Amino acid sequence: MHAVEVLNVSKLFKSARSQDFLAVDNINLQIYDKEFFSLLGPSGCGKTTTLRMIAGFEMPTVGEIYIHNQPMQNRLPFHRPVNTVFQNYALFPHMTVAQNVAFGLEMDNFPAQQIRDRVSQTLKLVQLTDVEKRYPRQLSGGQQQRVALARALVKQPSVLLLDEPLGALDLKLRKEMQLELKKMQRQLGITFIYVTHDQEEALTMSDRIAVMEGGKLQQVGTPIDIYEYPKTRFVADFIGDSNFLSGRVVEKQNGKVVVLVDQQLSVLVATAEDMPAGKVVTLVLRPEKAAIYPANYEAEYSWPGTVEEAIYIGTDTRYIVRLTAKSSIAIRRQNLHRDDLQRHRVGDSVLVAVPPESICIF
Length: 362
Description:
Elements: E1 2-13, E2 21-32, E3 36-40, H1 47-55, E4 62-67, E5 70-71, E6 82-85, H2 97-107, H3 112-125, H4 141-153, E7 159-163, H5 171-188, E8 191-196, H6 199-205, E9 208-213, E10 216-221, H7 223-228, H8 233-238, E11 243-253, E12 256-261, E13 265-270, E14 280-285, E15 291-294, E16 302-312, E17 316-322, E18 328-334, E19 349-353, E20 359-361
Parallel strand pairs: 3-8, 3-9, 6-7, 7-8
Antiparallel strand pairs: 1-2, 1-4, 4-5, 9-10, 11-12, 11-14, 12-13, 14-20, 15-19, 16-17, 16-19, 17-18
C-alpha cells in the first residue's frame, strides 16, 4: 500500500524581480506504508520543496499528491495526516519539554488525562522522561532534537516528515541519532520521509532513496541499488567516491565489452546493455572495488600503474595510481595489519586489479 503518492508534480516559483524558478520538475514518487524513505541531493535540488508540498506548506503548480489514497488538493497542513520535524526544531522557549510535546494535543482539544498519558509514553520512547520539566535552553542539541521528534510523534501521524533534523548535531551524536531514528521508525511502524544532503546518512537509514538534482528525479532505489548500480553519472558522482574513465568500445566478448581508455589501456567490463564497437562510454569504478598489488604479482583483469600518492587515513590507505598519461584513479586499501601499512610507496610500479562486474558503464 502506498502511504504517499506524488504524481506528475511540478513547482514553479514566480518572481517579479528575477527569472522564475522551477524548483521541482514533473516528478513521480510512490512511497510505501511503513517505509523509511529519503530524499537525497545537493542544496537547491528540490528535495525540501517536495517535502513541503507533501506537508501542505507549498502547493504544487502542476500535479497531485495523495496520502493513503486521499487527494491533498488545497488541504491545509493541519488537515493532513502528517507531522513535520524541522532542522531548527522550532521549540517554544517559554515552555517545558512536557509542555512542548503536549502543545499539539492541547490545540486539538484532547482530554487532559489522554494528553498526560500520550506525553508520558512519547517521552519514554525518545528517552527524555528525566528532563520533562526543563526548558529548551537547558537541553543539549541532541535532547532538543528528541523533543522536536516527540512533539511530532505524540499526535501519532501516519506519515512523519523530517527536514534535515540532524544537521545541527556534531558528527558522533548525528551517527548515534541515525541509528536511533531507524530503530524508532521500525518500532512505531510509521512512514518516515526524510530530507538530507548527507549520502552516508541516507544509505545508513533508508529502505529506499530518491536522488534529486536540478528539480528532477535521477534515480529511486534501495541503498544497494543506488550505490552499486547508479543509473546516471550524477548519481555515481554524488553517492560516495567514484573514479571516471572515458574510452571507446572496441569489441564484445560473451556478455562483456572491451573498452580502450586513452588509446592504450584495455578494460574488460561486464554489461547487459547493447554497446556496439565504436561507442564512446564512461566507466565508473568505486575506489574500494579495486585491489592493488606489487608489479610482479600475477592478477587477473589487471592494469599496470605507478603510485602517485599514498595517504594513510586510519581505517584505510588511499592510493592515487597513474594508469596513463591522462588518467589516474583512487584506490582504497583497508588497513588490516599494522605491520603492512606502507606496502606501496610513491613512485612504486604496481598492478591494479578490478573484476569486470565491479565496473559500471554509461
